[in-house]
Amino acid sequence: MNNSFSVMTDKMQMLYMDIVASLGQLPEEQKGFIFGYEGEEDYDWIHAVACYIALEFVKYSFDYSDPQFPLRHFLQDVDDDSERMLQQRIMQYVLKYKKQEIEMKGGDISPNDKFANLNMDEIDSKLKGYRITEMNYFEQQNIHDLEIIKSIVERRIVSSKKVSNARFVEIMEQYDEFVESLIERSKKSDKDMVFASLAFFTLEWHYPIEFFYFLANIMEEERIDAIDQDALVLLCGYVNIESRFGGWFSTESRMIKGRILVSPLLFGREADRFSRETMKDLLKEILVLITKYTEVVEVEDGRLYKDWFREESSLTDWASFFRFYDVFAIWQRKEWTPKRIQKMRYLFESTLSK
């Protein structure tokens, strides 16, 4: 994080501080549990959670503003049948694995979900009326074109017979080059900053390569063979949480920067059981809090908080937020050893559908 608020627009500073202030208005028991430290509020935690919420608000606002187009809008030549058929095949591939991912994570797809009633035997006719955004198109090209993503969604990544160590290194280098291209794109304009940052955020949320690489290094250095599976899923999976302050919540963990920061406390050899369980309980309540802010919290006039944020902010504000909260800071160019690759395979196998 860039510690200088000055990189954010005045409006974004105001919106961000409104989130911080609202966290200070939580019920005392809840506020004390999440943000309390030796009887005083831990302002680092408050700002960390405010950033998680702000990022969710920015993503929601950008998604809301991103117009939808028919697939043919993205074709270089609408009269080229070969290009159209290629894009339809890519769409078929992506939809198949997106539907599989939803079923894996929740096991229950809403009847209104766009993946709910896809019949792959009839997909060609359905694609004619299928509408996607620029971000949707960008993401589906990545799933198809990036070999590391294909190897993850197809579960080949866990097997050295299907993806050799040498090939593993090659496709990870391709991934690193892709992230570097996003970083370069982010420097071009406000729109590119928001687009590239959210593209990387979404990629890491779905396929936690940076998180697993960081964790694989810890496991290798500290000679750790197995880790707490519940904690791992809590940081990068789909979870059902019963809050100690009431209610059940289903959500995905998308704290791509925060999970790296807390990993040593959850998985390092020096972390004792009490500390690990305390951190897990804290993370659950933070996830619940983020879910409430993005799904149910309202402002005084009855609008959802996220809609108030969307209507009060602009693309320029969102770009300035990402200059303050640099999601690319978690990326690093990878160096591989056989043991590190083995640990990465273990982590993917621990979180991928059987």
Could you characterize the architecture of this molecule?
- The protein is mostly helical.
- The chain contains 16 helices and six strands.
- The chain has a two-stranded antiparallel sheet with strand order 1-2. The protein has a two-stranded antiparallel sheet with strand order 3-4.
Describe the structure using short key phrases.
354 residues, mainly alpha, two-stranded antiparallel ribbon, two-stranded antiparallel sheet
C-alpha-based Rg, rounded: 21 Å
Low-confidence stretches: 109-117
Strand content: 5-15%
Shape: globular
Mean model confidence by pLDDT: 87
The level of helicity is: 55-70%
Q: Which structural class do the helices and strands define?
A: mainly alpha
- Helix tally equals 16
The helix-strand sequence is HHEEHEHHEHHHHHHEEHHHHH
Total count of strands: 6
User: Major sheet: order of its strands?
Assistant: 1-2
Give the SSE map:
Elements: H1 10-23, H2 28-35, E1 36-37, E2 40-41, H3 43-65, E3 68-70, H4 81-106, H5 123-127, E4 131-133, H6 134-145, H7 147-153, H8 165-186, H9 190-206, H10 209-221, H11 229-236, E5 238-242, E6 248-252, H12 258-267, H13 273-295, H14 305-312, H15 315-324, H16 338-351
Antiparallel strand pairs: 1-2, 3-4, 5-6
Helix pairs in contact: 1-3, 1-15, 3-13, 3-14, 3-15, 4-6, 8-9, 9-15, 10-12, 10-16, 12-13
